Amino acid sequence: MILIRPEKANYQKNYPMVLNLIDLFHKMLMPIFFALINVVRIYKEWILSDKITIALACDTILFASIFIIDWFYFFEIQSKITNFCKRIIPFVDEVAKLLRKILKEETICY
């Protein structure tokens, strides 16, 4: 009798450090890199722009939306670091409360 094991079980058993590194990269480092890239991009757009255009306004609105989504992902969904960051960086908790309040007030129920 040949015992066939799925690759997933073998991978999890033999490569836990790789799995932890991949998990860290996707859950922690990518949101940080994504936010930094967007901050630098919108900053450069505002510095290089002579006047406010529709494209710049749309990019700014899109940046704000992406920043809020990234913020909620990083500080609300990632519970392992949320409490640590709220203790170390005092304004994180205040911003999270403000965003929750704004989003609750603008929720439309059908």
Description:
This protein is mainly alpha-helical and 110 residues long. It has five helices and no strands. The chain has helices at 7-14, 16-48, 54-77, 79-88, 90-105. Helix 3 crosses helix 4 (79-88) and helix 4 (79-88) crosses helix 5 (90-105). It is extended.
Structure described in brief:
The protein is 83% helix and 0% strand. It has helices at 7-14, 16-48, 54-77, 79-88, 90-105.
Describe the SSE topology:
Blueprint: H1 7-14, H2 16-48, H3 54-77, H4 79-88, H5 90-105
Helix pairs in contact: 2-3, 3-4, 4-5
End-to-end Cα distance: 58 Å
The proportion of strand residues reads under 5%
Write the element-wise H/E pattern from the N-terminal end onward: HHHHH
Rg is: 20 Å
User: What value does the average pLDDT take?
Assistant: 78
Outline the biggest β-sheet: none
- Extended strand count: 0
Q: Sum up the overall morphology in one term.
A: extended
- Content-based structural category: mainly alpha
Counted by DSSP, the helix tally is: 5
| Uncertain stretches | none
Q: What is the helix content? A: over 70%
Provide tags for this entry:
single chain, 110 residues, mainly alpha, 83% helix
